[in-house]
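User: Reviewer 2 asked us to show a designed sequence for the structure in our supplementary figure. I'm pasting the structure tokens here. Could you produce the per-position amino acids so we can include them in the response letter?
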């Protein structure tokens, strides 16, 4: 059996095992074992990739192609490059951390873990797909469980948040489908057969007018899930109502589908459309970077602060992709990985704080460093990574983005880069504000003096996310080199 299909088969087997389990204990043990196996597969894939790449110079490796629907030339076509491998590793780590953080889930635990794993199947399938139609199917598989996960296990105005999220993402999916079909019906421009194969379409000279028409549709279709301004409003509400593990997967993994889809589909297959439209979407992305940072300052709910921070950080991913050069693209992928680990860690810590204090309002908290020091110290570390302190993943990613963006000689690019860079200062303000109010000073509530200390499964989830944040900051070259090598074929169409 091929190494990539296991990322679909193992989660399905985990779901089948969950169906026959009874009770919380069995459900979480089965979920944990299944997630550990997936992480082991992802680590094995990294080593296998380096071994394969030493002897194989193809754009994609470990490819497999099986006809799915012959009439429309739809295939189960899979393969990976260094970017896909890195994102698969991110997904497996966040999924396992989410299982640990959900260890105490008591309401319908079996159904909760099944929904969580279905979401992960969609994400895994999306990252390995080389067929546009198959990729779209996995995209929908990843999005649909969010409605159930928020609507059933969420809190606050969960029905409103679940419906808003679903309607906006499904609306974006409809736009995306039009873009994908537009690409498909222009994939025979050089006289070949119609195809959904990404690598084959990349060799076709799609007419310029078609590229100008379908690039914005494809870009918006993907970028909405990446919190593109002004279509970002589903994200903060969705985060605020979602249970902890769902927020972790939502921000840490699901939102990465947007940037990956923009890069792998919109820019690779419609390069002239990207050159023509880049200025417009750069403005939207830069506004999103600044708006998300300033909006985070005004919030007092921890989840809303982190949600608007995500809008800002993911705005940087789209901003970097639109700069259309290798350095900025490398930064965009590194930022996707860094933000995935960082925001999942933030949401895990917020869930732990809320589970103990029963509030997410920072004005009602204070002095937590004295009573829950482990959680507090990790929160400070995550905050330092978020504001781009050297030695953490955020610094490596943002430096690549800003250096790549500033390589352009045009004054427009220089100005929007300077505006976006200023978001770093704003990020420092809201991070240090939260740390000062929530963690420092006297304990505001005497009941907090008896808060439960961190459990082994909570520590396991935290460390799973913390290690990559520090690892990327201290030793980023192996990862950066793997990504840069994979960027070369994609930049050719833009030169």
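Assistant: Here is a per-position design you can include in the supplement:
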């Amino acid at each position: 059996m091929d190494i990539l299909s296991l990322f679909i088969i193992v989660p399905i087997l985990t779901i089948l095992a969950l169906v026959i389990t009874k009770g919380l204990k069995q459900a979480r043990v089965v979920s944990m074992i299944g997630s550990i196996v997936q992480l082991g597969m992802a680590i094995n894939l990294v080593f296998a990739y380096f071994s394969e790449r030493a002897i194989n110079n193809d754009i994609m490796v470990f490819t497999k192609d099986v006809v799915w629907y012959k009439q429309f030339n739809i295939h189960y076509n899979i393969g990976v490059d260094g970017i896909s491998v890195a994102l698969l590793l991110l997904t497996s780590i966040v999924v396992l951390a989410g299982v640990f953080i959900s260890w105490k889930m008591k309401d319908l635990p079996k159904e909760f873990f099944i929904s969580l794993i279905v979401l992960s199947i969609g994400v895994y399938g999306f990252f390995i797909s080389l067929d546009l139609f198959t990729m779209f199917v996995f995209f929908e598989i990843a999005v649909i469980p969010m409605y159930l996960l928020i609507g059933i296990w969420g809190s606050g105005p969960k029905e409103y948040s679940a419906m808003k999220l679903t309607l906006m993402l499904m609306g974006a999916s409809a736009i995306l489908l039009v873009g994908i079909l537009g690409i498909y019906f222009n994939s025979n421009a050089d006289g070949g057969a119609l195809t959904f194969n990404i690598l084959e379409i990349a060799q076709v000279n799609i007419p310029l007018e078609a590229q100008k028409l379908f690039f914005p549709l494809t870009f918006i279709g993907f970028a909405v899930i990446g919190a593109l301004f002004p279509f970002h409003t589903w994200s903060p509400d969705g985060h605020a109502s979602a249970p902890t593990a769902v927020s972790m997967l939502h921000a840490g993994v699901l939102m990465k589908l947007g940037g990956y889809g923009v890069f792998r589909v919109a820019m690779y297959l419609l390069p002239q459309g990207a050159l023509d439209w880049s200025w417009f979407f750069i403005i939207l992305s830069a506004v999103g970077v600044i708006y998300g940072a300033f909006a985070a300052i005004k919030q007092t709910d921890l989840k809303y602060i982190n949600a608007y921070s995500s809008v800002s950080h993911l705005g940087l991913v789209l901003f970097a992709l639109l700069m259309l050069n290798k350095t900025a693209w490398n930064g965009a992928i590194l930022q996707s990985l860094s933000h995935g680990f960082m925001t999942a860690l933030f949401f895990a810590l917020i869930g732990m704080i809320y589970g103990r204090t029963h509030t997410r309002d920072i004005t009602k908290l204070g002095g937590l460093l004295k009573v829950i020091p482990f959680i507090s110290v990790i929160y400070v570390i995550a905050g330092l990574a978020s504001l781009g302190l050297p030695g953490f993943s955020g610094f490596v990613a943002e430096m690549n983005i800003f250096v790549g963006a500033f390589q352009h000689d045009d004054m427009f690019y220089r100005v929007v880069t300077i505006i976006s860079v200023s978001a770093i200062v704003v990020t420092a303000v809201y991070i240090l504000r939260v740390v000062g109010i929530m963690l420092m000073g006297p304990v505001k509530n005497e009941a907090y003096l008896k808060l439960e200390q961190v459990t082994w499964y909570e520590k396991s989830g935290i460390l799973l996310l913390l290690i990559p944040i520090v690892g990327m900051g201290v030793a980023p070259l192996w990862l950066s080199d793997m990504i840069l090598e994979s960027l070369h074929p994609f930049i050719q169409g833009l030169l």
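For the response letter, you might also mention the following. Residues 383 and 432 are 8 Å apart (CA to CA). The mean pLDDT is 85.
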